Amino acid sequence: MRSDFTESVIEIIRAVPRGRVCSYGGVAAQAGNPRAARQVVRVLHSCSEKERLPWWRVVNSRGTISLKRGYGFEEQLDRLKAEGIECSSAGRIDLERYGWERNG
DNA sequence: AACCTGACTTCGG
DNA sequence: TCCGAAGCCAGGT
Q1: Which of helix, strand or coil describes residue A99?
Q2: CA nearest to A5, candidates A33, A24, A47
Q3: From the CA of A102, how many Å to the C1' of C5?
Q4: Which of A13, A25, A29, A62 is the most interior residue, by most CB within 10 Å?
Q5: Percent of chain A residues past pLDDT 70, beyond the cut
Q6: Which bases on strand B have an atom closer than 7 Å to a protein beta carbon?
C-alpha cells in the first residue's frame, strides 16, 4: 500500500495540464510536504511508467530540466516542446508563463 | 539500525 | 546568474 503522500503526488502530477509545468517542490507542497521534493523524484522513478505519469511536466524550481544530456534530457525537452512550451536549448523554461498552480 | 543515494531547494558568496 | 554547501525525505542495502 502506498502512503497518502505518494498517492497525492501521483494525483497531482496527473493534474498538471498539458502545456504547463510544475516543480518537484511544488508538487511536494501540494501533496502536503513542501520539504519532500526528493521524495517526488522517488515516486517518479518508481511509478512514472506504471501509473503513466506526465513526468516531463515536472522540472526543478529554477524552471530547468534536471535530467542530464544523454539520460532523458533530450526526451523531456522534446516532449515539452511538443506541447507548445518554449524552452531554451539548455532546457530552461519561463515558470512565470508555464508554471502551474492549482489556482493559477 | 546505520549508511547511502537521488530527475531537489534554499542560501551565500 | 552561476557554483558550492547544507538541509531534507524516504526507500533500498
Answers
A1: strand
A2: A33
A3: 33
A4: A13
A5: 99
A6: 6-10
Region A27-31: mean pLDDT is 95
Say yes or no: Cβ of A66 under 7 A from any atom of strand C: no
The answer to whether A80 CB sits below 7 Å from nucleic acid chain C is no
Which ranges of A1-104 does DSSP label H, i.e. alpha helix? 4-15, 24-30, 37-47, 73-82, 95-98
Distance CA A69, CA A65 (A): 10
pLDDT at A104: 65
Residue A85 near residue A19 (C-beta atoms within 8 A): yes
Contact A92, A85 (CB under 8 A): no
Which residue is associated with the grid cell 501533496?
A: A31
